[in-house]
Every structure is written in C-alpha cells, then in structure tokens.
C-alpha cells in the first residue's frame, strides 16, 4: 500500500480480477495478494498475475477525484459537478439526436451487478447500443455455438476436462493464458494418458505438452478442420448413431466434403497431411474428446465459420453432451462470460433472450416499468465507424478501446469526433485522453458483487480494501447516473449489489434459481432454473440448449483473410503473455509483472529475419496500411516462417496500430490474427 492512501487492506476471499479462470484470492499483507482455496483453484494455486493483483489497488496513479475538461485541460471537480455534466450532456444529445446516438461500452472486468445496471441504463434510455469486449474476443464463438447448440458458453466443466481422453486445443495457449486451468485440469488429464493436439501457428508452453502440433497458417483453419472431418468420414470414424439421432444435415455435409483432397487442404493450411490424419484419428477414436478453443479461431473475418467447422468435428464424432467432451471456449477476462449473461450485448437481453422476442421484452418491462427497444443496437466495432455521425456520445465503463480496438489510430481519431465522452476507470488510460469527464471508480479489491467464470460458475466478490480518496463504487456511480437520467428514478434505487442480483435472477432465466446465500463461499452454475436444486454441469445431454433434440451439421467453405499478403509482407498475429492482461492498463502498473516482462518483442522466424538482415534484439519497424510501430525483434524457431507475433498489452508498441478493422459479417469481430505487415530494421538513431 502506498503511504498516502490508507485503504485499510484486509483479507476476504474474492475473485481474481484478471483472466476468466476465476481463482479465489485475498489480501496477504505487505501490499500483496495470495491465492486461497476456492471453487476453481481448490488448493489455492494462482499465477503471477493473481499474486500481483494488489499492486494496482493502491498505485499512486489511481484516480481519486472526478476530472472534467475545461479549456482543453482536465481539472478536478466535485462529484456533483461531474455527474451533472454527464447527465446534462447525455440528456441533451438524446433530446437532439435520439438515444441511439449514444454507445455504451460495458466492462467485462466488472461485476454482473454493475453490468446489469449498465445495460439497464442504456435500455431504459431507449437504446440497445450496449456492448462489451466479448465483441473483440469470442463473439464469433458465441454466435456459432448459439446458432447450432443454443448456448455460446463452455459446453462442459473444467472438472470434466481433466477426465477426457483427448484434448484438441485450437488457437489457444492455456499454459500461459489460463495457467491454473492448464496446471490443475489439463495436465492431470495428460498425466492420465489423454492425447493433446495443439493447433496454433506458434510453438508455446502448451505445445511442449502436446503429442501432435499442427502449426496452421493464420487464416486457414477451415481448410485444416474440413480436412480433419474428411479423414473422420473416409476412415469410418464418424459416430453414425449420434449423427442419426442428434444431428440434421449429415448428408449435405458429407456431400460437401466428398471431393475434398486432404493433401491439398493440409497444404493450403500449411501443415503436414499425415499429421492432420493422425490428429483426426486421435480425436475421433477417443472415447471422450474435448475441444478447447481460443482467440486464434475466433478473431478472424471468418471467425464464426471457423467455429462452425470446429462444431462439425464435435458433432460428427458424437463428442457433445457427455462428460469429458464438448466445445469449450476459454474466456479471457474475469467477467466476460457474466457481462454477456446479464445482457451487456446489443442483440440480447439478460439470459441471451433476443431483443426481438416480445415475450422477453415484456418480462423486462414488468420488472423495469419500461420495455427495451425491439431492434438490435450497434456493436462497439460498428459504432466506432459512426462516431461523429449517427453516434454522438460514448459512455466507457472500465474498458480501454483506444488500445484494444483494431486500427487504433483510426479509432482514437473517431473518439475525437464525439460530442461527449465519459470514462469510468481507475487510471488515466489512453481512452481518457479523448474524454470530457472522467469518474474515478473502484478496483476489484473495493467491491462486492458476483462474477461468472469461464465454466459458467457464478462466484461472489468481497472487499479487501477501502476506496482511495474520493473514488466511488462503480455500482453507486452507475445508479447515480441512472437516477439523474431516467424518468423512473426508483428503477436505480438499490440497497446494494445483492438487491441487483435478486432482480437479475428474476429477469434472467439462466440465473433464476440462484441467490447470494446459495452461492455463499462456493458457486452456482448456470443454467440454474427456478425450480431446480442446482445448476447444470454438462450442457446438451438429452436435448440441446436450443430446446431441440438435434443440432445441424453445416457445410462450411473457407474464405480468405481480409488483409491480403503480397511481396515481402509477413502475417502479424497478436495475442497474450502470461504476465499481462488485456490493454495492460492494470498489469503494466505492477512492478513485479513489469520486472518479469517489461517490454514487448516481435517474434520472427530465423529465415524471415535473415532475409531482412535482422538479428536477435535488433530494433525493427513493423508497418501495415494502418500504421507502424518500433519494437525489438526476438528471432525464434517457435514461430512458423511467414508469421510474426507480438502481444496487445502495451501502449508502445501499440499492436493495434497495425491491425485492421475488417469484421466477421456475423459477429462483427475484427481480424486481430491476420494483418499484412512489412518488417525492416529501424534506421540507426542520428548523432547530434
Ligand atoms: Fe487465476 Fe487467471 Fe487470476 Fe491467474 S489471472 S490467478 S489463472 S484467475
């Protein structure tokens, strides 16, 4: 704790603020957190981010007073002044341009209760323009799984991953990105004899534990997955009784794949055909085979189709609806699952009920006194293109789109086109540079509420510290804004987060049977119907979540990445590192984590480096049509030739200055995993 901010730290079990694993942590003294036994990390195990979670709580950069822009500069202001300015500006814009002129950026790093109130505010004001950064990570996964199976979340649980016979990990690196899942659930399965197949253009710590590695060319996953499906069919490894009883469209898919040439498909995907056959056999012959899927699959303009091709593989082999099987997206932020569950998405209400469903809107109207609008709102990736035009204001709650959106230089310019922007956050993030009002909110350690982890477990958070200075609890800030802006002000009059959760359980059928008391020190898992004794572990066992006994098999054809590579260009693919989280606004303020990984590097294969006269450690310029960055080169054989990699955790180099804003047509997710770039050595600094 810093000397000037006595936040009275104390230990109480709560949920780690970083990744979607949902480890239980608490204050340990000396300004540090520690793991403590919880529902997911049953022995109290945590990764370095969990240990360092307290580092940002009392950081000297914490915002402790509201800021309002006066004459181009920020000045501190009393809460009343700042909130009046927010209410007046948003009210005026809504009066002149209508409620759809405001975009609401929800926070997948904040609680279910906060996100529920946030989307309620947007919808009671008359717009469905509310989204969260699930748009940027797994919206395509959710779209494909919802369409086919009726639910977009992990089909199975972490516990039964450890009982699988074969793990097919696609576009994910759980050893670094979800380390406690890897150590506590994946490695035990491998020690018990499970085969690990890793599909990823990089050789990572996950690959080290794999039996088969398919280093696919970024953007060519469908060719690979269709080739695997073809091997399954050709070699009689499909589960024909499952196909007959639980699927439709089998004949169409088989006809679609009939003439596929596995060797040619593998060649386009950049992998060895024999290895593809070996992987297909291992997956299809296993009694229980589980897919674990990550952003390497989802963050493409073909992201939704990538996941459709993956779902075909699971359905063809009958690997859905049983323990140890399924399709399991690993969620990135600690409450990205919950933010979607509670309705912080433009097309669905709490519980993934479509905004176009009149019965669902009526259930909400019965609770709120106002029906939500019936047309889907704007996704955040589309809204940014309308800033200064149809969209005149943004409410940014605990997110940092100036760093996380693709084509970041363009996104930043777009923010400057707004008439008004308010940011609620802990620090002066890059997005704050574009704000008119900044409201200092609460960190994970200063709030209670619930979050929902990657395997659908709702768990409670408990305060480990008081607020610094005049910062306020996020829930209080949001309800205060609601009371100022919405005619039915009592709709935002709550007696704490538990009262919000009770309302959420009334309007969200997936949470209907849950309660704070029921969650207690443990968890409750969705779906948890009102009349059930507990939640459901394995989805889709008798019927799919869609309510149907069958799910469709779909013919999927590849489409090329949006950013064509030509000349001596390489493909940039971006991702995460163990020590950092999302835009890095929190983890880059940890001395411990910065000691472990203080700066980013560009991973480049020795062949590509030699062709450009680049040596390990050289400073290089990476350039795309959108921008350029300067970064150190790390020459390594762990990345496939033709591909370079860096993370998106740093403001400098800002990886998203390079990425493109072409979107998947269904999910509107950007193609972070495939950007055409040139790489060259940086000019030597000039001597004075
Ligand atoms: Fe656990 Fe994820 Fe937190 Fe690490 S970052 S301690 S794996 S929840």
UniProtKB/TrEMBL annotation:
Top enzyme category: oxidoreductase
* InterPro entries attached to this UniProt entry: Asp_de-COase-like_dom_sf, Formate_Dh-H_N, Formate_DH_asu, MoPterin_dinucl-bd_dom, Mopterin_OxRdtase, Mopterin_OxRdtase_4Fe-4S_dom, Mopterin_OxRdtase_prok_CS, Prok_molybdopt-oxidoreductase
Residues of the 4Fe-4S Mo/W bis-MGD-type domain: 9-59
Alphabetical list of SMART domains matching this protein: Molybdop_Fe4S4
Record has 4Fe-4S as a keyword: yes
Q: Which CDD domains match?
A: MopB_Formate-Dh-H
Question: What domain of life is recorded for the organism?
Answer: Archaea
Keyword Transcription regulation in record: no
Q: Which GO terms describe its cellular component?
A: membrane
Q: What is its EC number?
A: 1.17.1.9
Report the record's Gene Ontology biological process terms: formate metabolic process; respiratory electron transport chain
GO terms for MF: 4 iron, 4 sulfur cluster binding; formate dehydrogenase (NAD+) activity; metal ion binding; molybdopterin cofactor binding; NADH dehydrogenase activity
Q: Recite the UniProt keywords alphabetically.
A: 4Fe-4S, Iron, Iron-sulfur, Metal-binding, Oxidoreductase
The name this protein carries in UniProt is Formate dehydrogenase subunit alpha
According to its UniProt entry, this protein's organism is Haloarcula terrestris
